[in-house]
Amino acid sequence: MTSEITLFVNPTAGRGRGAHAAQPAASALREAGFSVRTLVGNDADDALLRARAAVDGGTGALIAVGGDGMVNLALQAVAGTHTPLGVIAVGTGNDFARALGLPVRAPRAAGRLVAEALKGHRIRSVDLGRADGRWFGTVLASGFDSRVNDRGNRMRWPGGRLKYDLAILAELATFRPVPYRITLDDGPVIEVDATLVAVGNSGSYGGGMRICAGAVLDDGLFDVTVVGDCSRATLLKVFPRVYKGTHLDHPKVTVHRAAKVSLAAPRTTGYADGEPLGTLPLTARCVPGAVRVLGP
Length: 296
Description:
The protein is α+β, with helices and mostly antiparallel strands.
C-alpha cells in the first residue's frame, strides 16, 4: 500500500469544525510516516470529481473529514474499489462513524486510529445500500423522518441532536400518515398507512436516533422499520424512545429484514445519510462488502 493518502475535507462540517479538524488529523498521520494530501472541492460535484481522481490515481486511502454528508460523498468515490475509507467524524450527526465504533469529534485521536489501522492492515469490509444510483451507509429515511431531516437541514441553530428534536416538534403540527406500498425482496406488496418507513444499513440517523436499532453493517440485509398510522400523541410518546432503540417493541412499529426494498408513497421524499435522494418511488439494494473501512 502506498504511503500517500488523501484527506477529503468538508471545511463547513460541524459549523466549521471540518476546517479545524483537518490539521490535527493530518499531523497525526504525518507523525506516523504517511504523506498526506488535502483535497477540498469548490462544491460537492467538484469535490467528488477530485476524490474519484485520487482513487483512480492509487491513493492509499481516502479519509473523509466531516459529517455523514461528507462520508456519503466519499462513499461515491470508494465504493466498489480496493481503496479503503477512513473517517474523521466532526459533523453534526456522525452516525456512520458511531456504527463503526470510531472516535467522534476527536480528530487527532481519529487520525491516529486511521494510521494504526493502515499500518496494521485493520481493514473491514462492510455493506452499503444503493438507491437511485447513489451509495449510502446509514439509513434511507422516508415520511415523517425525511420531513424532519429536511427541516433540520434548513435550520442554522441549534446544532447536534437538539436541532432534530426541535424539527420533530415543528413537523408534528402538520404531518399526517401517508399510504405506502412496500415490497421486500420481490415478495407481495405490503400496503399500509405509515408515519415513516426507514431502511437501515446501520442502526441510527440524526445524531444517534436508533431507528433501525438491530441493523448490522455486514449481514447483507437491511432492517426496515415501519411506524404505522400514529396519532400525534402516540408519536410524541414513541419518538423519544428512538434514542435508546426501545421504540421497536411498540405495537405501532414493525420490523422487516430484506436485501431489496421498494417504497412508494405520494408526496414523500427519500433521504439517505441525511442527503436527499429524490421523491418516492425508490428501490434500495443492500450490497454486501461494498466498501473497505479503516478502524478497530
